[in-house]
Design brief:
By secondary structure, this protein is α+β, with helices and mostly antiparallel strands. The chain contains four helices and six strands, in the order ααββαββββα. A six-stranded mixed sheet has the order 2-1-6-5-4-3. It is globular, with a radius of gyration of 14 Å.
């Protein structure tokens, strides 16, 4: 059984890894068959596809930080609201992405991640992609 403390530690490790650009650590937080869904395209992608996307983001956005983290834990997962901030490498412009993440957890791993963000903010992150 995964405890509230375990879930909090998993959430912290997951987002800290992305901040640090440690995409392998982030990917290892998922079960191999985990589903990752984004509200902007309504597609379900794999952990490998998510790792590929985040690898590109890490190359384009420096000084990444998950600011204003608000974590709520429930028995099978967590919800986190935050603002991802950083600077585009190409032009040193600051960007921000308000977001809400809902994760389902089984045996200490993420089995489902639903990500909600405003597509207008995504455009600034992807400007030079």
């Amino acid at each position: 059984m995964t405890t509230d403390i375990d879930i909090r530690e998993l959430a912290q490790k997951f987002f800290d890894a992305i901040e640090a650009g440690e995409i392998e650590t982030m990917q290892n937080s998922f079960t191999p068959d985990a589903e990752i869904w984004h509200n902007t395209d309504e597609l379900i992608v794999s952990p490998a596809q998510t790792a590929q996307t985040l690898t590109g983001m890490v190359k384009r956005i420096k000084d990444r930080r998950y600011a204003d983290r608000r974590l709520t834990v429930y028995p099978d997962g967590f919800v986190q609201q935050h603002v991802l901030t950083g600077k585009r490498v190409e032009d040193d412009v600051e960007v921000r992405l308000p977001c809400a993440i809902i994760c389902r957890i089984e045996n200490g791993k993420i089995t489902r991640l639903d990500e909600y963000f405003d597509s207008a903010h995504v455009a600034a992150f992807r400007k030079y992609a």
